[in-house]
């Protein structure tokens, strides 16, 4: 079909033919702009889908955590109720026991103190008896002495004093008995006093023990009060758990609603992304048709506004092909090195830069061809050769600055030695058509884009396709 049209097209294009070429060029620009916008929307949709899935997963995780919290609160409430019941029973039992024990200890203490008081009284009586016994013993001694004197006087009196002597002997015998009885009484009172002393010591110890027991009973009563306070704390804990349960249950219901809404949102985003993917594919197809149509128009003799750039790209691509071929013939570089695809990353580069065995060679020979192209028209943004994988080894000097610490600045100013394997870069490197005119949005870094046209022509070395020369210019 192209041959038929070419044969019917006049050698010198008419104004209508020129207008067709211009319109075709503008159509390509508009299609490329729409394709870029759709690609942006597709990326945003992908981000939204990812965010929706992440949010949905987070909501599900929070729902699970809240359900676990609700279950844990239920278990805790049950355990607290059981503890409260046990503590309540224990507190009641301990309180009763402590009260009874305290009462018993008080009675024992009173008894011990009463015994001690009684013993003190008995000790006083014993001392009185001892004093009386001592007095009796003294009287017995004096009576015995008196009886002895009476016996002496009775002996002096002779027969007249016999009766008196009998009485004196009787008094003496009574005095001896009293003295003997007083000795026994004193001995018994001594043993009684000793026993009473030991009993008093023991009673005193018992009294102290009873007092300590009373103090301990009071401490136990305080512990009982603490236990009762603990029961009250458990009661408040149960009340607090009950108060918390209602908001947790509400949260569970709320999360269930959120999950439903997020699922619907995720489905909507997924559906929108599917439509955007189809739209992106179709716009790319339309863009390819527009590019093929532009090639058809040029080959058919129609004049376009981009004709000069197309001729420039084709001429410079042929120069580079001749330069590479000559270098191989002279042994400056081998075909194996020139077609090396072992891309070695440059350490620490951001964006990532790579090197090949032909990078140093292109750095030497390509600037002489590429740099003068920038002077051809002020609209030209760059002129650079890429291999068939989109690798751009040697860029224009203004885009080949050493990388710094700012990736955004590097993106715009350090574009050499990088892989541009997007649609435009790969198409430019892999196309074997006489030329390829593409319209695209150039990523300048920092979310900045420039609408560009990219005219490329193939570079062939000894019959083998190496890549293409790209001449990009502003629309």
Describe this structure in words.
It is a single chain. This protein has 475 residues and is of the alpha+beta class. Helix content is 72%, strand content 11%. The chain contains 9 helices and 8 strands. The strands form 3 sheets. Strands 3-8-7-6 form a 4-stranded antiparallel β-sheet, sandwiched between helices. It has a two-stranded antiparallel ribbon with strand order 1-2. A hairpin with a 2-residue loop joins strand 6 and strand 7. It is rod-shaped and about 200 Å long.
Helix content: over 70%
The succession of helices and strands, N to C, reads: HHHHHEEHHEEHEHEEE
**What kind of sheet is the major sheet?**
4 strands, antiparallel
- What name is given to the CATH topology of the largest domain? Helix Hairpins
Which residue ranges are poorly predicted, with pLDDT under 50 across at least 5 consecutive positions? 1-12
Rounded Rg: 62 Å
Widest sheet: strand order? 3-8-7-6
**Quick check: average pLDDT?**
78
Number of E-type strands:
8
Globular, elongated, flat, extended or rod-shaped: what is the shape?
rod-shaped
- Number of contiguous helices: 9
Can you say what the CATH homologous superfamily of the largest domain is?
Methyl-accepting chemotaxis protein
Tell me the distance between the termini.
30 Å
Count of the domains: 2
């Amino acid at each position: 079909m192209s041959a038929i049209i070419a044969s019917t097209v006049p050698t010198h294009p008419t104004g209508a033919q020129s207008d067709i070429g211009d319109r075709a060029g503008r159509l390509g620009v508009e299609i490329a702009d729409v394709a870029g916008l759709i690609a942006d929307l597709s990326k945003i949709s992908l981000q939204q889908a990812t965010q929706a899935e992440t949010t949905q997963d987070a909501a599900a995780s929070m729902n699970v955590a809240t359900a676990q919290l609700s279950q844990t609160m239920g278990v805790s409430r049950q355990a607290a109720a059981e503890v409260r019941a046990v503590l309540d029973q224990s507190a009641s039992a301990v309180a009763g026991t402590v009260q009874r024990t305290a009462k018993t200890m008080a009675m024992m203490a009173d008894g011990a103190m009463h015994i001690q008081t009684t013993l003190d009284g008995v000790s006083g009586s014993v001392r009185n008896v001892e004093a009386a016994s001592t007095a009796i013993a003294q009287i017995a001694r004096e009576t015995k002495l008196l009886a002895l004197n009476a016996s002496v006087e009775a002996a002096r009196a002779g027969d007249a004093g016999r009766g008196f002597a009998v009485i004196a002997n009787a008094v003496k015998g009574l005095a001896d008995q009293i003295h003997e009885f007083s000795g026994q009484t004193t001995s018994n009172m001594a043993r009684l006093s000793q026993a009473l002393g030991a009993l008093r010591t023991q009673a005193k110890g018992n009294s102290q023990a009873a007092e300590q027991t009373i103090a301990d009973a009071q401490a136990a009563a305080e512990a009982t009060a603490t236990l009762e306070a603990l029961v009250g704390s458990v009661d408040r804990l149960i009340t607090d758990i009950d108060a918390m349960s209602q908001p947790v249950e509400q949260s569970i219901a709320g999360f269930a609603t959120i999950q439903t809404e997020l699922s619907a949102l995720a489905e909507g985003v997924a559906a929108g992304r599917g439509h955007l993917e189809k739209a992106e594919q179709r716009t790319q197809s339309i863009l390819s048709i527009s590019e093929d149509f532009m090639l058809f128009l040029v080959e058919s003799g129609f004049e376009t506004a981009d004709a000069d750039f197309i001729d420039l790209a084709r001429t410079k691509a042929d120069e580079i092909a001749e330069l590479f071929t000559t270098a191989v013939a002279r042994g400056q570089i081998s075909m194996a090195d020139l077609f090396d695809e072992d891309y070695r990353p440059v350490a620490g580069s951001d964006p990532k830069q790579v090197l090949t065995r032909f990078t140093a060679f292109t750095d030497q020979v390509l600037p002489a061809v590429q740099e003068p192209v920038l002077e051809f028209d002020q609209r030209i943004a760059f002129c650079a050769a890429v291999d068939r994988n989109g690798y751009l080894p040697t860029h224009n000097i203004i885009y080949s600055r050493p990388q710094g610490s700012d990736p955004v600045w590097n993106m715009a100013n350090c574009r050499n030695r990088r892989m541009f394997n997007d649609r435009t870069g790969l198409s430019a490197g892999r196309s074997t058509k006489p030329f390829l005119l593409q319209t695209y949005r150039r990523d300048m870094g920092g979310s900045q884009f420039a609408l560009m046209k990219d005219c490329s022509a193939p570079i062939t070395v000894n019959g083998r396709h190496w890549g293409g020369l790209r001449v990009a210019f502003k629309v």
